[in-house]
UniProtKB/TrEMBL annotation:
The keyword Coiled coil applies. It comes from Meridianimarinicoccus aquatilis. PANTHER family: DOUBLE-STRAND BREAK REPAIR RAD50 ATPASE, PUTATIVE-RELATED (PTHR41259:SF1). GO terms for biological process: double-strand break repair. It holds the Pfam family AAA_23. One of its GO terms (molecular function) is ATP hydrolysis activity. This is Rad50/SbcC-type AAA domain-containing protein. Residues 308-327 are annotated as: Disordered. Keywords: Coiled coil. Residues 199-226 form a coiled coil. InterPro entries: P-loop_NTPase, Rad50/SbcC_AAA. It comes from the Bacteria. Residues 5-75 form the Rad50/SbcC-type AAA domain. The keyword Ligase does not apply. The lineage of its organism: Bacteria, Pseudomonadati, Pseudomonadota, Alphaproteobacteria, Rhodobacterales.
Length: 327
């Protein structure tokens, strides 16, 4: 039997369905920060195989979330007969207790028949061995048959002790160490990566790829800028090729030129007005403050100031039109 996935619903901190996938053949490690729910996952896995669905003892109640509810656990397993899904729900209400075994959506067994199917699945092999399925938790070993727990414990400890003794002493240990040192020497020396070795080659290739990546990023940015400029030029070209747009552009240019010419004429008149204002001031000084002369000078000054304002406005309008026509 091989475990392929595990799903928890209403199990302690996992009020919403939580699925663990990616189990592979052989040893699987579950790593997560403290209080992330690792122990809960293993308790749920233990329950689906060893805790009967009809039970509502301390272990079953211990699976409930803080807000209450019926804890449910589903596992997908691979057995010699194919892939099966085992689902159990524990509840204080008899009508909500469930145990089902399905295969490809087809019901294989349910209720007590499902419990019997699970018991056959984890039964100890007939040719010996400590157990078909063992659960090791906090120094305890639980067999599928509680009355055989002591015998299972002795069998496991004997097997493990033999393996440890065989591995940690004698020629097997020496051969293992030699193989590890040989493999390690291919990659590193006491001073770092071995020159010309696989690790140095990998680091060199990585540096080359990083440099290549930076170069390609620069080219990609330049290409994006060139494409943006190309779109702008195509837009301008489209405007020049459109007859109506060309006529509008020409009309704006002619209007700008006319406005600029008018502004130049006003500029000339502005110079004349300034000259008149200066002459008036001189005459005022020469007449010693003659009232009539002073009034005439003031009128000329006001007229010159008004013409100056008009001329400046015309110059500003002409420049704006010229900018619009040439853009």
């Amino acid at each position: 039997m091989k475990l392929r996935s595990l799903t928890l619903t209403n199990v302690r901190r996992f009020a919403d369905p939580m699925e663990v996938r990616g189990f592979g053949d052989g040893l699987n490690l579950l790593a997560a920060p403290n209080e992330a729910g690792k122990s809960t996952i293993f308790e749920a896995l233990n329950a689906v195989f060893f805790l009967r669905y009809g039970s509502w003892n301390k272990d079953a109640r211990g699976l409930q979330p803080y807000a209450g509810g019926d804890p449910s656990v589903s596992v997908e397993i691979e057995a010699p007969a194919g892939v099966f899904t085992i689902h159990k729900t524990w509840s204080s209400a008899p009508g909500r207790k469930q145990a089902r075994v399905t295969q490809n959506g087809r019901l294989v067994a349910q209720a007590d028949a499902a419990e019997a199917w699970i018991a056959d699945l984890i039964e100890a092999p007939g040719d010996g061995g400590p157990a078909g399925l063992l659960w090791v938790r906090q120094g305890e070993i639980v067999s599928e048959k509680p009355e055989d727990g002591a015998e299972a414990r002795r069998g496991v400890l004997s097997s493990v002790a033999g393996e440890v003794e065989a591995m940690t002493g004698g020629r097997r240990m020496d051969a293992a160490r030699a193989r590890v040192e040989e493999e390690l020497a291919m990659y590193v020396t006491s001073r770092g990566p071995r020159r010309g070795g696989p690790l140095e080659q990998a680091e060199t290739a990585l540096n080359a790829l990083q440099s290549r990546e930076a170069d390609l990023q620069g080219k990609a940015q330049a290409l994006r800028s060139a494409l943006d400029r190309r779109r702008e030029l195509r837009h301008e070209l489209k405007g020049l090729e459109d007859p109506q747009a060309h006529r509008d552009h020409l009309a704006m240019r002619q209007a700008a030129e006319a406005a600029l010419e008018a502004a130049n004429r006003y500029s000339e008149r502005l110079g004349t007005a300034r000259a008149k204002a200066e002459n008036a001031a001189i005459r005022h000084q020469a007449t010693g403050g003659n009232i009539d002369t002073l009034k005439a000078a003031l009128d000329e000054h006001r007229d010159a100031a008004t013409q100056l304002g008009h001329a400046e406005q015309k110059v500003s309008d002409g420049k704006a039109l010229m900018d619009a026509a040439t853009s």
